[in-house]
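Bug #77: duplicate submission created two jobs. Keeping one. Sequence:
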Amino acid sequence: MNIRKRHLSLVLIFSLALSFWSLSACQSWRMKIKNFEQNFVGLSMTLHSYDENSRVIDSLHGNNVSIRRNTTFDSSEESGDSPVVTVSIGKHELTHVGSSLILYEDGLENLFETFDQHVHVDNLDRSIPIINRLAHDFANKFTGRQKIILIRSQNGSPLATFAGKKVSLDKTDVPKSTALLIDGRYLFIYRCDYTIYDSELFDK
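Kept job's structure:
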C-alpha cells in the first residue's frame, strides 16, 4: 500500500512538473510562431518613433509589417552588430537608426497615449511616480492583467505602457532591441529603456 502511494505521489509530481513545463514551452512556441509570422508574412502593426523627450517623431500603421536588421551595416559578416533597421510595410520600406522606436500589433493598446491626453506628464505631482499614478487612474484597464510594461526613451522619459495577462520576452537579431508577446500580440522595442512590473505591486 505504501509503495502504491509512493508511486501515485511520484506520478502526481511528474504530472505537475510536466504541466508547468508545457505552459512555459507553449508560450515559447507561440513566440516562435509569432516571430516567423512577423518575419515572413508580416503583421498589422503601428509604428512610433520618438525623440529623447518621448515626443512622437512619426507614426505609421500598416498591414504586412515586419522589421529586420539591415545587414549592410554589419561591421563584418559574423558580427551581426548593425544598429540600422529596415521596416517593411506592405510593398514599401523605411530605414531607421538611432532614436527610440516601438512597433505593436493591432489588439494592443498603448495606455500611456490615453493617459498623457488627460494628464500631461509635465504637470504631474513629482512626489507621485508616474507608473503609480497611471495604475491608479486607469485601474479598470489593468483589471485581470498580471503584468504592466512601462517603456521609456533613452533619457528616461515615459513613452508607452502596455498591460497583459501573459507576457514573455525574446531576443531579436537587432542590437538593443527586445520582442515581447503580450496575450498573443507582438511588441517590438528598439533603443528604449523598459521595466516589466507585476501589477500587484500597485494594488492598494
